[in-house]
Amino acid sequence: VLGLLVWSLIAATTYHLHAAYGWVMFVSLFFWILTLLFLVTYLLQLHQKFYMVPWPLVLMISNAVATVLYLTAFVTCAAAVQPTSWRQWDYNRRAAASFFACVTMITYGVSTFFSFRAWKGLGSNAATSQVTDHA
């Protein structure tokens, strides 16, 4: 939802006149589509059919790359906002897009942390941690 807000707010402005917003559009739209693909993969339980793919590692790498690229998109978007714009609604939308790009970057960062824990197996529950191999 946050990525959708970023690219829809930028798309509602005259972003094609500024090259910086093209980068923000690319990052937000690419990771929005990629996140939707991961969501559909997990909802349809396709990750269980493709068991040879290390899904926790794939998610961790994807989230880490999204965090770094959203950091660049946030900085680019925030630096390109001009308060003396001749179109006030463009200024408001671009400022809101900068805010939501920052929130999306933080969200992907938190998701990277939890993906790392899942990849390392640090998030095991009480039932699996009580099992021992003493036979």
UniProtKB/TrEMBL annotation:
Principal location: membrane
Record Pfam families: MARVEL
A GO CC term attached to the entry: myelin sheath
PROSITE patterns, per database record: MARVEL
Domain MARVEL: 1-120
TM annotation in the entry: 20-44, 56-81, 96-116
Topology in membrane: Multi-pass membrane protein
Keywords, alphabetical: Cell membrane, Membrane, Transmembrane, Transmembrane helix
InterPro entries referenced in this protein's UniProt entry, alphabetically: MAL (IPR013295), Marvel (IPR008253), MARVEL-CKLF_proteins (IPR050578)
GO biological process, alphabetically ordered: myelination
GO MF annotation, one: structural constituent of myelin sheath
Localisation: Apical cell membrane; Myelin membrane
Keyword Transmembrane: yes
Oligomer status and interactors: Forms oligomers.
Family: Belongs to the MAL family.
Protein name (record): Plasmolipin
The species this protein was found in: Leucopsar rothschildi (Bali myna)
Taxon lineage: Eukaryota, Metazoa, Chordata, Craniata, Vertebrata
